[in-house]
Amino acid sequence: MTVDAYLYDAIRTPFGRLGGALAGTRPDDLAAHVIAELLRRSPALDPGSVDEVVLGNANGAGEENRNVARMAALLAGLPTSVPGTTVNRLCGSSLDAAIIGSRQIATGEADVVVIGGVESMSRAPWVLPKTERPYPTGDLALASTTLGWRLVNPAMPAEWTVSLGEATEQLRERHGLARERQDAFALRSHRLAAQAWDDGFYDDLVVAVPGVALARDESVRPDTTAGRLAALRTVFRPETSGATVTAGNASPLNDGASGAVLGSERAAELLGRAPIARIAGRAAHALDPQLFGFAPVEAANTALARAGITWSDVAVVELNEAFAAQSLACIDAWGIDPEIVNRHGGALAIGHPLGASGTRILGTLARDLERSGQRWGVAVICIGVGQGLAVVLENVAG
Prior knowledge:
Layout: E1 6-12, E2 16-17, H1 27-40, E3 52-56, H2 68-75, E4 84-87, H3 93-106, E5 112-120, E6 126-127, E7 143-144, H4 164-175, H5 179-199, H6 226-231, E8 254-263, H7 267-271, E9 277-286, H8 296-307, E10 316-319, H9 324-334, H10 347-350, H11 357-372, E11 376-383, E12 387-395
Helix pairs in contact: 1-2, 3-11
């Protein structure tokens, strides 16, 4: 017999630009801050009643090594009796953390699970591979761990290991997505994010980082225009080749952390608060690595089927905007109204600190459903190396 899992609270830090305001803050400290804030917001909860901490992190090569979930839990002041584990499903890591935590609750193994994710792309180190023999005479190259493939196994087919940007160029060719449409989608993301901040939507969802002068997401550009986006050069192929992917219609590199409290129905008593949303469906999907951007399509379709609903029931979609082309391909495949997608801006504007993005979209979705009073929503994310994840939420806020 399974029990329902609910989302009770969700927060995140503002997302900083690469080398920006959060670059001086360690990722384990960012994660610890989010955990501590979640506990502070539920003062009735005995910290020792937390059954597990599950955090997502994509890079894991720097200060977040050695199981950042456990380290952050200790830094946040949780009792040493509270276990923690870190999950790595690249961009989907913190949404995977939510899936793992909800399954623990569904099986009766836990009543309260703190989930989330963290990434500092600014502080991701360069790594030097070990040599196969001592004292080599040639040069060795450092590999950046900030983003993408590194230290690739030569047995991997070359078509699988193309950059995320090149893979997106292939995807937009396959689906016939024009540059103008991608730029328009990016412009919408910035305008909606800026408007959401101005309207106070993020006031209760974003918590400032102590000692850092960053009140809002650092990558949002409220003054950008269609003309400015159109003037940007393509990055992954020469523009003369018909390429379309630019820095303006691709998500930036960012730093940040996100978190949420999941619990059983009984957890309402432990937390002293009512749940916001029920986790009604979840799914993963995989395909050829270079087609990663299209993996959310079947992940969401499967999650909806498991929730017992269809796209006609869905009022809100939080789709992580890795690239405008990737997002548009998914929206077209679902055949949904684009206006229900990312109503408060998306990653093209807000940013995409890999390990933190999954819980960001989940928390935004829950708050959107709560405030709008609409019933069904889906959080969905694409993942490098050809995967996608989706979680369906049902609004249960009174």
